[in-house]
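Lab notebook, bench 4. The sequencing result for the construct came back, and we need a structural model before the next group meeting so we can plan mutations. Quick request posted to the team channel:

Model the 3D structure of this chain.
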Amino acid sequence: MSIFVLGIDLGKNVCSLVGLDETGAVVLRHRLRRDGVVDFVGKMEPCIVAMEACCGAHHLGRVLGAGGHTIRLMSPEYVRPYVKANKNDDHDAEAIAEAATRPTTRFVPVKSEAQSDIQALHRARSRLVAERTALINHLRALLLERGIVVAQGRRKLEDVLGVFADEDDSRLSSRVRLLVEDLRAEWRSLDERIAAFDTEFVRMARDDDTARRLSTIPGIGVVNATALVAAVGDAASFGRGRDLAAWLGLTPRQATTGGRPRLLGISKRGNRYLRANLIHGARAVLPRIVAQDTPLGRWARRLLERAHKNIVVVALAAKLARIVWAVLRKQRSFDPAIAAA
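Done. Here's the predicted structure in token form:
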């Protein structure tokens, strides 16, 4: 039995395997528990092992790749058109194997263990930030129920809560005042934990040459730089800067028919965390860029003359994504004197 490509549909406990020969005929169908996949595939002759880029796929890709197999990870949306008849695990594994043989399928590079570690830290930090935001909203609602309206901004809320620490303030009952103090302590704990992650990202960005080069780009701080290093790597899987911007969902969606193109809003595909951080960075750095007499600054000023500021912010984020690609591929720091691509 000669297997050319092996499709694996990863499950939490049970995985389905389908092997195709060079003609595309199915020569193997097998189901294994997840912990038995490595032993089973490790005994096979080197072949193409295809999987959807889902949870656990990168770890399994690293392990099987070390055994001489060629690993191809792909987005689930590229597998869906090849699913035949009713959807089940075996059909999914067969569709994965078939999609891996198509020359137009785009594959996801297998992330190194270091990249996976950095992404895990970013996900943990993102969860803490979401918890802090929920806690702040909880405090605002608690005060609003007692007729106290607080202006926007975390610092303004902190100032108001400091006033209620005084026991002589009669706007809150003693029990609610204790509850507010407990929530403030939780808030401070979240701040400390988030700050610890930020400190670690600063150390990572200082020790990594690629992250240091990315930090020279306007709007790319240590959080963005380390997240890009973890998710994009050396950007070798992207042929040009626009491909990276499209992967991040920063390019317009198209609705073209009859040869008449129609561009809509951004597609919002890909990594939501990276896209949001790039947009936040672009919004923060836009005033400084507009004030500079550089190719990027002149481009931003011309765009502001004919478009809304929010549109300019997203366009600048897409521009930063293209610059990120150039910095990663050419392995040199950002030069503001170079004309905007």
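Residues 174-207 form the longest helix (34 residues).
Will bring this to the meeting.
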